[in-house]
Amino acid sequence: MTRPTVSQQLVDSYVNTLYRIDTAPQPICLSIDEFSQPLALLLQKTNRQGSAIISAYNPLSRQLFDAQNLQAHEQLRLYLHNHAYSFTEGRNIDPTGQWPIEKSFFVSGIDLNTAQTLGRQFKQNAIIWIDSDAIPRLILLR
């Protein structure tokens, strides 16, 4: 069995992060392993199997300059657009303020395997996976 190469401190940081989906009229805020009624309603409304929150910010948890992060974010947006995924902008917010806010995308209608591959392609340590139960789960990629 392969052991994750992500430190426990970083895993804890991911778990404590608030994952915000910028839906109208109000954003949906998610926490790892916690059911979200607004998310359940969104999943029911979109009627798509499988969703993920994926960021291109700070690859391998190395903080980059804003311009570099924005460029990577736009590359991810272009990939999602070109592959006809339904997606909504979001933000990953560290409540301790240790990490700056990271932009992300809530991608619906994506399978777990593809979401993991996409996260690895953008050099992420983890993605957030959401199945039909509306419970966000941390999926480590390394």
Strand fraction equals 25-35%
Largest sheet: 7 strands, antiparallel
Shape: globular
Low-confidence segments, given as residue ranges, are none
Mean model confidence by pLDDT = 94
Distance between the termini: 13 Å
**Total domain units:** 1
Alpha-beta classification: alpha+beta
Alpha carbon gyration radius: 14 Å
- What is the helix/strand order? HEEHEHEEHEE
Number of strands: 7
Attribute tags:
seven-stranded antiparallel beta sheet
Q: Would you give an account of this structure?
A:
This protein is of the alpha+beta class and 142 residues long. The chain has one domain. The chain contains 4 helices and 7 strands. It has helices spanning 8-16, 37-46, 66-82, 112-121, and strands at 18-21, 28-30, 51-54, 86-93, 102-108, 126-130, 136-140. Strands 2-1-4-5-3-6-7 form a 7-stranded antiparallel β-sheet, sandwiched between helices. A hairpin with an 8-residue loop joins β4 and β5 (102-108). The radius of gyration is 14 Å and the shape is globular. The protein starts with 7 loop residues before the first helix and ends with a strand.
Briefly, what is this?
By secondary structure, the chain is of the alpha+beta class.
Topology:
Layout lengths: L7 H9 L1 E4 L6 E3 L6 H10 L4 E4 L11 H17 L3 E8 L8 E7 L3 H10 L4 E5 L5 E5 L2
Antiparallel strand pairs: 1-2, 1-4, 3-5, 3-6, 4-5, 6-7
